[in-house]
Specification:
Helix content: 10-25%
Largest sheet: 6 strands, parallel
Number of domains: 1
Shape: globular
Number of helices: 5
CATH superfamily: SPOUT methyltransferase, trefoil knot domain
Strand order of the largest sheet: 3-2-1-5-4-6
Structural class: alpha/beta
CATH architecture: 3-Layer(aba) Sandwich
Order of helices and strands: EHEHEEEHEHEEEEEH
CATH topology: Alpha/beta knot
Radius of gyration: 16 Å
CATH class: Alpha Beta
Bound molecules: S-adenosylmethionine
Length: 190
């Protein structure tokens, strides 16, 4: 079964941080397998090169065989879910510390027919959540995946910032878009 990842954008604006994550997701799953929903008309162009763009919310699409990735779900996503679901829906929500638990009230609540799955008890960025789900759907059990629970980004010789979210470790390196590191360095140096 061909899988589609759907990012329901739930931030008030299309922040640069969101765009960086969305591009990173597209690089991981491919443009053909990625949908962005709930996108204001003025932002459609910014995303068109990364996936299919819809102004409509996924909550009004009534998709069959859909799974919402929700940190509050009772069941862990497993490789067996590969043949059960065609659509994997995630919140286009930036991380917050402490986690505000927005996925339930802003997304899952409006998708009563969709099945909910979690991918561990820690908050991941949307791009890392997609990457984790992709690994599981490719057959890797969750317990076999490697993570770090806080990433440190070096800004210059004396400063660094901590990102208190869970990141995948890929070949020993945290799975963070180089564009995000560049963005944070630029932001912190002003
Ligand atoms: C940065 S998280 C949002 C977390 C946020 N604290 C909240 O309010 O729910 C962005 C999206 O990634 C997915 N996600 C992140 N961590 C997850 C987890 N542990 N289990 C399931 N989904 C997760 C969810 O779809 C979530 O909406």
């Amino acid at each position: 079964m061909n899988h589609f990842f759907i990012i329901e954008h739930l931030e008030k604006e299309m922040y640069e941080w969101c765009l960086i994550e969305y591009k990173h997701i597209s690089q991981a799953v491919g443009k053909k397998n990625l949908w962005f929903t709930n996108i204001p008309k003025k932002d459609r162009k910014k995303l068109a090169k990364y996936g299919s763009v819809f102004t409509e919310s996924v909550t009004s699409m009534h998709l069959k065989n859909a799974c919402v990735l929700d940190p509050e779900a009772n069941k862990l996503l497993s490789p067996r879910d590969k043949s059960r679901f065609q659509y994997f829906i995630l919140g286009g929500i930036l991380g917050d510390d402490p986690p505000q638990k927005r996925t339930g009230p802003e997304l899952s609540r409006f998708l009563p027919e969709a099945v909910k799955r979690h991918i561990g008890d820690r908050q991941m960025s949307t791009d890392n959540a997609v990457y984790t789900a992709q690994q599981i759907l490719r057959g890797k059990a969750f317990r076999k995946l490697a993570f770090i629970d806080t990433a440190e980004v070096t800004i210059n010789k004396v400063e660094s910032i901590l990102l208190p979210y869970r990141y995948n470790l890929v070949h020993g390196k945290s799975y963070i878009s180089p564009k995000l590191i560049h963005y944070l360095k630029k932001k912190e140096s002003f």
